[in-house]
Amino acid sequence: MGEARGEVASKTTKLTTVQSSTLEALRNLGKPSEVERVEAALNLLKRISGKQFTPKDDSEGEKNEVDYVLERLVRGVGASRVTARTGFYSALVALLTYHKISARNILNLVKKELVKGKTVSKSEAADIHMGQVLVYGAIIRSGLFVEAVKDDQTEILNDLLSAGKKRTYITLVAYSFIIQLVKEVNRKLFQKVIWPGIQESCGLNKDWKDRSLDEIYLLIGVRAHFPSIVADSASHLNPDNIPQIASVLVNIPNVSYVGHPVYNSYCQEIAATEHVSLFWSEVEKQLSKPYRNRQLIALQMLEHLVNYLPDKNMIPSFITPLFISFTLKSKSSKRHPQEKDGLDVFVKVKHIFPTIMKNLESEEVKEKTKVEVLKKLLFHPGSFTFEKNTGLKVVQPITTSLIPTGVKKLSKVYREVVSGKMESEGENEVRKRKMKDFKAIPWKNKERIYAAQLLARLIGTPCMANENEWKLNQVKFLLHWGIYSKHFGHSNSDETGFVGVELAHSLRESFFRSLDHKSGGLRAHIDLLLNLVHHVDELLKDDSVEDKVLKGMALEDWGKAVKVIERLEKRVKEESEESISKPKIGEAEFFLMLFLQLSLQLFDWDAGLAADSLAELSVCYEKLEQERMGKMGEIKSPSKKNKKKAKEEVIENGEEEQDLDWVEVVVDLFLHLLSQNRHLLRSMICSVFVHLCPRLTPNALHSILQVLDPRGGKSVLEDKDDESEDEDEENGSGEGSEEEKEESEEDSESGADEEEEPTVNENLRRAVQKALGSSAPSDTESVDLDDMNEEEGKQLDAALSQAFRLLKDTKNAGKAKKQQTKDERSLTHFRTRAVDLLEIYIDSSPSMALCCDLILPLLDALEFCIKDVHQKPLENRLRACLKKLPNLKKFSSTEGMEDDILCDLLNAVIKKGSRTAPVFMDMGNEITSCCTFIIRASEYLRKEGEGNELVKSKKKKSAVTAKITDIYKKSLETFFTRRDCLLPPTMFRQALQLPWPGCWSLVSPLVQFAFDLAVRPFRRTQAFQFLAAVFLNQQLFSNLGNINVPALIKVKEELNSKIIPFLTSLEEPGDASNIRKKNIVGLMNLLHAVRTSEVQIKKIIGDGVHMADEIERVCKTIDWDAIGASLACIYRGAMRGVGPEGKKSVGKMLKLLGLGSVRAQHQKAKLQKVAAKLELEKKEKEDKNVTEELGSESDEEEDGTNAPKKDKEQERREKKKRRKKSSKIETRKLKKETKNFRMMEFSKGLEESAFVGIGELPEDMEDAEERNMDIEIKPKKRKSDVMPKTAKKMKRDS
């Protein structure tokens, strides 16, 4: 084994002293799994620990175990597989670290084991050189190099450098070991031994352009620790050498060099100097010609430079035009998969920008630096649509990190772009954007639009929440350029600031988007809108403004709205002056917010919607004022004029006979606005609706629920638009009405056509008849194919194939129709917004009666959504809304609540009705949430009744709980007795986990169902789980006032009377088949819960003696001694129907009852049986061997005529082999159990002891050791040792 590679070994080494476990560990060092390799190394070190290394030659005969292991490790690092080299190298480093072995002995082993032979191949030679480098590296890592003599050190270093140069990919490994050696040695050793070797190998007189990446990496590592030894003129940081080094670093032979460590090392060194800008400029010079490898290397170095820059304010200098240009180009090439080079570059770019943003978050970075980075990305050479073009989220994260100073600077930049100009810093003249051809051209519309959108986003930045004046100025700017662009902009298209129709529309949208941010709170937003409305009113009254924007009826509506706003503003000021503390948002501020937002909506393209909404709001506000003045006694009776005016308004609304509450009108208006696709309106409604919730009436809530009614369909949206359509018909011109009539006629005609459209079967019948032609029969006749000739048959085949192709196309068209239409999608979104209002109401301490009204409509809507796959967004919102109900702990009022309401609601919730089984089961969690809410509501009513002094009847107080308990009892009986019951188990489990008196009434039936064999086994398991949930109810047992002691005693008596017979029946093998193992596990969990509850009850016993007696009786109800005895008998028995899981739970219960000795005795008896079985198997094995020998002798005497007998004998032997193999497996299992029991007996009394270092070893090391002990050491057979067939025949004949 010690000869050179490629030559056959002529001698063998005796391995009788090497244990089989050591050989197994050596084999496992080459496993692919890292965990297995580490385990093998630990086992190997454990085996040879304490043994000495005594090197011997092969001629000396028997070797020491350490000698053999060391030889195998040295030979193993030269393996061809990477995993094997890794495992052997790790074990070698550990062995050399903890064993006293000289470096000379290792050198001798290298010359002996890792030497090229005469017939070695190139790949084997490369493996040998890699093995030599790894062995020398292990010497360095283990510290043997420093302890070696000078001659050995020189030899090791020279051999390491020599082996490293044999292959290019080995050089980096060798130099890495040398750099690590340089870090550990002192200056004297470095100058005498290491530095001369490096000088001879690398040559210091070479130019940097002639050096390789590995040599640069080595010299950087040397200078980092001994800078005075290397001259400054030859340093890699010398400005004269930087261009050459940049050229070497960028021009790599292939892409595998991208991960070379030289880039990280050099960038870390150069970033700390003043020459970092020079280095980056030299790198960019190398990128003049686009090449993938160069770009990847440049991006890699840029990432390192940004991370190592001491001054992060220099980051903008590295975001150069060249970097931005190939960033944009790499993204454009991503659209074409064939351009793989650009895709690789873009992947690298995606890693760099997060690094840049992370470094910009440093505290030392100035706001000016961040703004400068944004300018480079958004302006030339970048683009204002940089994020859109690249898909990188860069601009917004940097903007969010700005402080108010930086945001204000950035807003000036955006405003200059919107206005079509940019002021250069330090100059008064205006400069325009310059492109590559340096021709001045104006900003494009899309860039100005995007700048306006970014400016609108800046207004909602969290850091600008208190900058009200600044926000007002930005909103005014967008107002001027979006709405009054003719006055503040330029009307001439040749000028820079010209605003066309398309641009004006987009800027107007940005203005309304800027009103959507409320980061400063509702009152601050109201102040901003109030100042904005006053500013707009001044512009409308200013004669110098030619374009008034609002004209005619719109201007009148504006004037009316401004008058109401002034009244509301005055009232808000009065209320704020009267209140000492900061008041809540009242009705005045509520209406003021609505009037301000809707009055500004008059400037939108859909001004009619705003005008109608303002008219309805005015009526509502007048009603509120009348209501308020009536309470104050200031209004006795309205005048005739006001009566007539109010009556006219009511008639216009179509409600002459019914006087609606103003809240209902406002809610209906909100729903109408939510049906519009405007985010600003939705945001406004969600912000003010929470202040309307305390005044919400049942009719108002039902109008919201009507939107969710699945039977409404499209009519929900159509009803919201009826008023506006009627007004349009009244105010429209004759031409318009004629056009509408024509459209309606066309719609009716198309509808008639759709009704007359034939079905799929009719189309198919017509196509078949057309294909058959004149020979087409009637529906009752058939075609005789024998009457057709060959040509007619071919024509018929072609015609029929066309007909059936038509059928296929018709089916595909039907599938396409199943997709959701635009109107259906709009309806889904509208309903989702309505659910948002309901969630806001639930979170605002609602009324209990109104919450009860919510449940059934929400469940109906959920059922509809489950059936339709397109309603998934609405389904998720409904589930979230229903999930909030059981968490309600406070209600604003319980007015109108009666016992029958909750009971009827509970019956309606748990009733399956017309729902299908899959839908009902899918709604299980929501049904559980509703039932839990009903129980909590009943408890809230009960406690409120007990606290009310006017309510003195105890029967009335507990009526709700008793009725709900009866419903749960009936449902529980149905759940356990009927097979078609679909009620969710969580409904009962959550009810039993609540601290309400009804729990005690449900426990007794559960005991009966748990031990009733007529109940299905899995239901009995659920009954055990329900009972365990009761006794584990911490809220129920944490307070003695919640415990119903008589009921608890009764339940425990029933349990005691049922458990002991049940356990006794388990001892009989006949009854065990009717009991599942999960029943045993459930019963053990129940007993554990009961025992735990007794401990908790004892902890909370009060000082009262009468209570202590009752609690003592509770704790002694169950006979734990009898239960323990039964469990002990069961544990000793076979427990065939229980299974390992049930047996484990029984063992835990025995331990809880203090009967752990039963388990030890059972283990001891089992071990005795195991020993007897092993003895019996040994005797049977000996008898079988004798029988086989006799049988083989008799077979040799028989002739070839007994072939059938031989076949039978062969079958018998195969059966014996199979039995023998299975017996070995069982024997190994029995041995393991015997060992575990032996270790358990030995470890008695040592549970609290701890041993240092034991925790670091793998848990299954002993099992692996035991497996290794079973392996016999068998030396490999040589070819000469194998007996030839002729010799066998001669021996048999003799």
TrEMBL record:
<keyword id="KW-0539">Nucleus</keyword>
<feature type="compositionally biased region" description="Basic and acidic residues">
    <location>
        <begin position="1204"/>
        <end position="1213"/>
    </location>
</feature>
<comment type="similarity">
    <text>Belongs to the MYBBP1A family.</text>
</comment>
<feature type="region of interest" description="Disordered">
    <location>
        <begin position="713"/>
        <end position="791"/>
    </location>
</feature>
<dbReference type="Pfam" id="PF04931">
    <property type="entry name" value="DNA_pol_phi"/>
</dbReference>
<dbReference type="GO" id="GO:0043565">
    <property type="term" value="F:sequence-specific DNA binding"/>
</dbReference>
<dbReference type="GO" id="GO:0003714">
    <property type="term" value="F:transcription corepressor activity"/>
</dbReference>
<dbReference type="GO" id="GO:0003723">
    <property type="term" value="F:RNA binding"/>
</dbReference>
<feature type="region of interest" description="Disordered">
    <location>
        <begin position="632"/>
        <end position="653"/>
    </location>
</feature>
<protein>
    <recommendedName>
        <fullName>DNA polymerase V</fullName>
    </recommendedName>
</protein>
<feature type="compositionally biased region" description="Acidic residues">
    <location>
        <begin position="781"/>
        <end position="790"/>
    </location>
</feature>
<feature type="compositionally biased region" description="Basic and acidic residues">
    <location>
        <begin position="1223"/>
        <end position="1236"/>
    </location>
</feature>
<dbReference type="InterPro" id="IPR007015">
    <property type="entry name" value="DNA_pol_V/MYBBP1A"/>
</dbReference>
<feature type="region of interest" description="Disordered">
    <location>
        <begin position="1180"/>
        <end position="1236"/>
    </location>
</feature>
<feature type="compositionally biased region" description="Acidic residues">
    <location>
        <begin position="1190"/>
        <end position="1200"/>
    </location>
</feature>
<feature type="compositionally biased region" description="Acidic residues">
    <location>
        <begin position="719"/>
        <end position="759"/>
    </location>
</feature>
<dbReference type="InterPro" id="IPR016024">
    <property type="entry name" value="ARM-type_fold"/>
</dbReference>
<feature type="region of interest" description="Disordered">
    <location>
        <begin position="1257"/>
        <end position="1294"/>
    </location>
</feature>
<dbReference type="GO" id="GO:0005730">
    <property type="term" value="C:nucleolus"/>
</dbReference>
